[in-house]
Amino acid sequence: MAKKHTEEEKSFDFTQNLDIQETINRSEVFLEKYKNIIYGVLGGIILLAAGIYYVNGIYLPNKQAEALNMMYVAERYFEADSLDLAINGDGNFPGFEEIADDYSWTKAGNLAHYYLGIAYLKKGEFETAIDHLGDFNGDDVILSSIALGAMGDAYLELDNKDKALSYYKKAADNKANTLTTPIYLLRAGELAEEMGETKDALAFYERIKADYKASTEGQNIDKYIARVSEN
User: Fold this and answer.
1) How crowded is the C-beta side of 38, counted as CA atoms within 13 Å?
2) Would you call 158 helix, strand, or coil by DSSP?
3) Could you please report the per-residue DSSP string of 132-201?
4) Which end of the chain is less enclosed by CB atoms within 10 A, N or C?
5) What is the pLDDT of residues 78-126, one digit of tens each?
6) What does residue 49 show for φ and ψ, rounded to 5 degrees?
């Protein structure tokens, strides 16, 4: 019986070996038939990985450094309220418009949109300001909130009060903080009050009193609440 069992095992092993060999043969035929496609795909993956590394690891950091080196002059003009020079450059150094266009994939190019939005807002070119502020995508708590609030200011200047109120709300709720949130809550409250939306105005004022009493806006908020409550 032991001998017979051994022969059965040998027979089973032989059949299994045939199956394995057949699988190997099929794989070799498949690889031979499609090797050009497979090598092409692998080559494409390698090139893609190399491209991603080059763009993120070398190209963009170099462009970012280059943009920052140029941008400081435009920032100085902006701080001095020389808005045209800040926007268009002085002939030797580029302005924010050129930086936003030529370095659009960099953080500096993104920040240039913020400066452009505020600059055009100060110049009274409100639609252009809205365009650039809308293109700005900031992670910074303060700048991102100011950008939204500035869009509210621009819409208000264009007499679009609904849009203005909407952006003041967005600015107030954007990463709430003790610096910008009470400012835009107050602006939202004052605009809602002007629009006759006294319940909404009261809600904005009460939020300042509850959460931002120590702020500049919070110190005088009781008179706003009293005024709205009378109506």
Assistant:
1) 8
2) coil
3) HHHH----SHHHHHHHHHHHHHHHHHTT-HHHHHHHHHHHHHTT--TTTHHHHHHHHHHHHHHTT-HHHH
4) N
5) 999 999 999 999 999 999 999 999 887 788 899 999 999 999 999 999 9
6) -60, -40
pLDDT for position 58: 42
CA distance 107 to 61: 10
- DSSP string for residues in 46-70: HHHHHHHHHIIIIIHHHHHHHHHHH
Taking the C-alpha atoms of residue 215 and residue 208, their distance in angstroms, rounded to an integer, is 8
Q: What distance in Å separates the CA atoms of residue 182 and residue 18, rounded to the nearest whole number?
A: 79
Give residue 53's pLDDT: 45
pTM for the complete prediction?
0.74
Does the domain formed by 138-231 have CATH 3.30.160.100? Answer: no
Mean pLDDT for 158-173 is 97
